[in-house]
Amino acid sequence: MKYFEYMGKSLFKEYGIPVPDGAVAETPDEAAEITKKLGSAVIKSQVLTGGRGKAGGVKFADSPEEAGKAAEELLGQEIKGYKVERVLVEEKLNIEKELYLAITIDSTKKSPVLIASTKGGMDIEEVPEEYIVKKNIDVLTGMEPFVIREIVSELGFDFKAETSKQFMKIVSKLYQAFRALDAELMEINPLVIADGQVIAADAKVTIDDCARYRQKDLPYVEEKTVIEKKAAELGLAYVELEGDIAVMANGAGMSMATLDILQYYGGKPANFLDAGGGAGSETMARAIELLLEKKPRVIFINIFGGITRCDDVANAITQVLGQQKIEIPVVIRLVGTNEEEGRRILEAQSLSAYNLMHEAAQKAVELARK
Ligand code: GDP
Ligand code: MN
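Above: the input record for the complex with manganese (II) ion. Below: its predicted structure, written as tokens.
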């Protein structure tokens, strides 16, 4: 489960990792009030996605009035599909240097891995390898002081003695928190040096869902995007992704295979909807509407009819396409129970369906590129 930045920071605080002064606001007035005590402030959208800075989700204010205005602009806005319901109002730091520090699980080495870099503030995926220090941590011995010293020396950053001491303490505390809270990820990007102090300016915390039974004190957070919430209300299994091909398939295995094959041919799924077994035409119609909300370039429907009959699926598709004007290409692959009948229904509406999944996937990718 992912936590909002403000929650991550409050966990950091509990474990002795310094975070900026601040508080959460749900209204512009609250944001202004908090700013009175801070002087100048940073107003940060609380959404479960990174890259808020680039997406315009982080604003600065030099007075309570400006803070109120910034909060008004941010609250209610959607950032990468997530609605902003709260902002974090914090003291504005005088950033001298942005570092990167994270601990996550290395699934190949089956151990926690610490990742640090002197190039903080940007996506770690974009940082050149030579600026990244990685250390696998043995859970039996823990984060040993010599490992922390190695990290500092390999970073090759000219830390002042006092800053280095603070940095090392944060590494050690972060590991303590990571283990104690059964985290999958604890990322501080950027970890900043401001007025000689090392402070976590951001917090990304993901707790292992399998550990919930022993992390009962941790709060529960709803992770859904705006469209995912609608889907849940309709009882549809819908997941949002970041590409441009909308996917409907039936069954979890089939949905995963469909995403994989699109990726294999260079396509990027925008979302996927598991139509499940025996989805009626009404449900299918709703499903297609949801897929379209993400404004994809292509819809790819991949159905292997078992309990679901191909003629039912074909009827649902023709019904939806008859009712609403869909301006993007729809690629259909339909095989299984009552396949022949299903094809006849589609052909009667001058639609056609592929037999082979890879051919259909290639077509969908090709159309998305156009
Ligand atoms: P993200 O884009 O979602 O990862 O959000 P961040 O919390 O990392 O904020 C994005 C960027 O805003 C940071 O990399 C900083 O450059 C900047 N930023 C955040 N807090 C402060 C602050 O207190 N002072 C200053 N000057 N910049 C800040
Ligand atoms: Mn960040």
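Notes for the reader.
The chain has three domains: 21-91, 95-211, 226-369.
The first strand starts at residue 2 and ends at 3.
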